[in-house]
Amino acid sequence: MTNQNAAVSEAQTMDIKVAMSSSPLFSSAAASSGRCITVYRRKLLKKPETAQKINAWADSMRASSPTRVKSTSPSRSHAQSEDQKSWMIHHPSALEMFEKIMNESKGKQIVMFLDYDGTLSPIVEDPDRAFMSDEMRAAVREVAKHFPTAIVSGRCRDKVYNFVRLAELYYAGSHGMDIKGPKGRKYNKGNRAVLFQPASEFLPMIDEVCKILSQKIKTTPGARVENNKFCLSVHFRCVDEKRWAQLAQQVEEVLNDYPKLRLTQGRKVLEIRPTVKWDKGKALEFLLESLGFANSDNILPVYIGDDRTDEDAFKVLRKRCQGFGILVSKFPKETNASYTLREPSEVKLFLQRLVEGKGSSLLGY
Ligand SMILES: O=P(O)(O)OC[C@H]1O[C@H](O[C@H]2O[C@H](CO)[C@@H](O)[C@H](O)[C@H]2O)[C@H](O)[C@@H](O)[C@@H]1O
């Protein structure tokens, strides 16, 4: 596992935030001339500790979606393929391990959790155009006929619903901070639609920061703020790498006035969230409880996701020793998932095969 792929922990991101807030990084003239990262690093050399933290931040932004170049050097490409092999041994393909998974599910109720971006829809430049295919929708619809199914996304719930358009599912938007289930399903506690919003008091703050930040980042071409209701996404997929540090600086300047918000990171996106102790893992536990499965031994929760934020859910499953996580990735990444799928098309195949093998489900959902 390379350092570049290592996930930056929440504690590290907070450290980085403190470091950045106390550090004059680079002049705006340098930033606008595209020399920002160089100048930024040069200034930091004076304070090695700060430099280390800030470099971790810059590395973290690059690691969110590193450029993968196939090496031309034989020894390097050999090392790359050895890395890949070793990773696949520890995190085999869920398709190749399908029979094993089916055996494990015998006598158990599968409960399905699906991330959206990068899992059900391919990653695209424009977040408003991250559509899922009709075939994928059909596969999810079939899965939901047989197993309780939830979409767990960083996006706001309404937006992810508009992409998925399946009323029979649970939806946990804003990284699980906005949960709602379908009305009148037999698995709902008390037969009610579940609605849980642990960060509702942050709504006005998130709106305010969204406005301020949208204005501020206008000087960073390609940057974009997405309002996800209980959290914000600052996209840098279309920002020149030379300006990433500038963007991070702009975000930090705004966040300095909002100590109740924290910063995390996804795939070419900085995510601003309330400092509530809630994440996709907590959302998974909440949903299992709502479904009446909190203390059930005969369930098999399966969580499929591609992002760092999905790791919280993978961890919960490991801790419960129940079910497993599947990471969607073509490349080796540090993960708590047990299995892998390479891309959304493989996720679709896996879901279709799961429906074909549904006979093994005990509770006949
Ligand atoms: O939890 P998720 O459903 O995976 O949501 C995480 C973020 O997904 C979206 O951004 C990502 O997908 C975009 C479209 O493919 C892509 O342009 C971007 O670079 C990715 O980070 C969404 O727009 C964000 O708000 C979510 O936080």
How is this structure best described in words?
The protein has 365 residues and is an alpha/beta fold. The protein has 13 helices and 12 strands. It has 2 domains: 3-63 and 201-274, Trehalose-6-phosphate phosphatase related protein, domain 2 (Alpha-Beta Plaits, 2-Layer Sandwich), CATH 3.30.70; 93-198 and 278-360, HAD superfamily/HAD-like (Rossmann fold, 3-Layer(aba) Sandwich), CATH 3.40.50. It has helices at 10-21, 28-32, 36-44, 48-63, 74-90, 98-105, 134-146, 157-164, 203-216, 244-255, 280-290, 311-320, 344-356; strands at 109-114, 149-152, 170-173, 178-180, 195-196, 224-227, 232-235, 261-266, 269-274, 299-305, 324-328, 339-341. Strands 5-4-3-2-1-10-11-12 form an 8-stranded mixed beta sheet, with helices on both faces. It has a 4-stranded antiparallel beta sheet with strand order 6-7-9-8. Helix 9 (203-216) packs across helix 10. It is globular. The relative contact order is 0.16. The ligand O=P(O)(O)OC[C@H]1O[C@H](O[C@H]2O[C@H](CO)[C@@H](O)[C@H](O)[C@H]2O)[C@H](O)[C@@H](O)[C@@H]1O binds next to strand 7 and strand 9.
